[in-house]
């Protein structure tokens, strides 16, 4: 509860008391002032409640933004790591292919044959 909720609730209660006392005394002015205080107190209470909800939503939004940032940084770190690993493996494969050209040629020819055989289909 914030200050506006407390003050609004108290003013609403004060207005109810004024309205009741005005009715008992049979006087119109205290009744009208009481009704006014009830309405103003209710509005202030509603404003305070809305402000509290907005503050809670702001806090929740900040927490969600922090979690998103953390997960984004983790995903970026994993991506950088995967890129480094792929680059290392690619360089290793390239060095092996350059140092063993006959094996590389036979492997590529075998893969091409298998791919052609699989893609040929029946005719």
From TrEMBL:
Annotated InterPro entries: YjbJ_sf (IPR036629)
Domain of life: Bacteria
Name by which UniProt lists this protein: General stress protein CsbD
């Amino acid at each position: 509860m914030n200050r506006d909720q407390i003050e609004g609730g108290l003013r609403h209660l004060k207005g109810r008391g004024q309205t009741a006392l005005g009715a008992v005394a049979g006087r119109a002015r205290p009744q009208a002032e009481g009704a006014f205080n009830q309405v103003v107190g209710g509005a202030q209470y509603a404003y305070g409640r809305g402000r509290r909800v907005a503050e809670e939503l702001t806090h929740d939004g900040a927490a969600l933004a922090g979690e998103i940032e953390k997960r984004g940084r983790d995903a970026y770190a994993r991506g950088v790591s995967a890129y480094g690993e792929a680059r290392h493996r690619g360089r290793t494969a390239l060095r092996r292919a350059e140092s063993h050209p006959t094996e590389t040629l036979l492997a590529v020819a075998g893969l091409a044959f298998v791919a052609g055989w699989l893609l040929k289909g029946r005719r």
